[in-house]
Amino acid sequence: ARPDGEWKLVGAGSGLVLVNRFVVDEVSRSFVEWTGKTGSSVTMGLWSARRSLAPGGVLTLEASYEIKRER
């Protein structure tokens, strides 16, 4: 599954929001993973479609992250 170009995490009680924006055509899958066992940690990941690259080939995913206060 993949959000439509933007997704966000809202910190319960902190009022902070982490927003991740990306180019939809470059992303085929997304994931989020979190833990609170030894400290709070969150990973947001984006994956491209599987592609074969020639030697020296380049694959680029454009994404931005923003941290803001919840309104």
What do these coordinates show?
The chain has a three-stranded antiparallel β-sheet, with no helix packed on it. Strand 1 (6-10) and strand 2 (16-22) form a beta hairpin. The chain has no helices and five strands. The chain is elongated, with a radius of gyration of 15 Å. It starts with 5 loop residues before the first strand and ends with a strand. The chain is mainly beta. Helices cover 0% and strands 46% of the residues.
List the helices and strands and how they pair.
Layout: E1 6-10, E2 16-22, E3 29-35, E4 41-47, E5 63-69
Antiparallel strand pairs: 1-2, 2-5, 3-4
Summarize the structure.
The protein has 71 residues and is an all-beta fold. It has strands at 6-10, 16-22, 29-35, 41-47, 63-69. The mean pLDDT is 90.
How far is the N terminus from the C terminus? 28 Å
What proportion of the residues form beta strands (DSSP E)? over 45%
The H/E string reads EEEEE
Report on the biggest sheet: 3 strands, antiparallel
Key words describing this protein structure:
71 residues; mainly beta; three-stranded antiparallel sheet; two-stranded antiparallel ribbon; 0% helix; elongated
